[in-house]
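Ticket #4471: structure output looks truncated?

Reporter: J.K.
Steps to reproduce: submitted the chain below (204 residues) through the standard prediction queue, then opened the result file.
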Amino acid sequence: FPVILASWMLADTPATNVMGSSPDLALSVLRDQAAYWRWLAARCIVIGSLIGVACAAGVMYVGVGHYPWSEIVWACALVAALPVGVLPVAAWLGIVFPFNPRSLRWRWQHRRAWRSHLRWVALAFAPFFYVPLIGIAILSPGVQLARSIKLPGQRLTPAQFGISAAVVCATAVVAAAIGLWVARQLLAWRTTHLAAYLANTERG
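Returned output as attached by the reporter:
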């Protein structure tokens, strides 16, 4: 349950539409690669911390009284680390395909621009398919390890669960490093297009 909750929270537009959700701020750091790097990293840390704490509370609620404390601690570490790995990769979507948040009233007034609205609808729902795939990719090494060391017909021991959770946490850190590096490359590739798009307030 906490992993599913994290996936749902990470798929929200503030986590994925990194350029369009704050166009003025994005424009201010767009030309400065170092500033953008710090801004994106700080954004991922803040949003990841909020989601991680909320999901760790969910782990405590589900686990206390039902599972050993060692497993609860490792599960908290896992759900806290998962957003760290997911967010930088999720940001790729907002760099390549940003959109300006608009009210439904504004969209109704511009209802003849059906291509723009179709793009907005697709990008609003895309994170709910894209983000879970990132989470599955990060979880996969730990899950596969757990399957390989678990005895048939028995559940994981606390030690086995801890090792598998540690692998997931390490994978999340690696995914975060790769995600930030790729995001920087995408920014360099898309700088001109992003500047033109974000500067035009009439584009939805």
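Triage note (M.O.): checked the attachment and the full token line is present. The chain has a mean pLDDT of 81.
Status: closed, working as intended.
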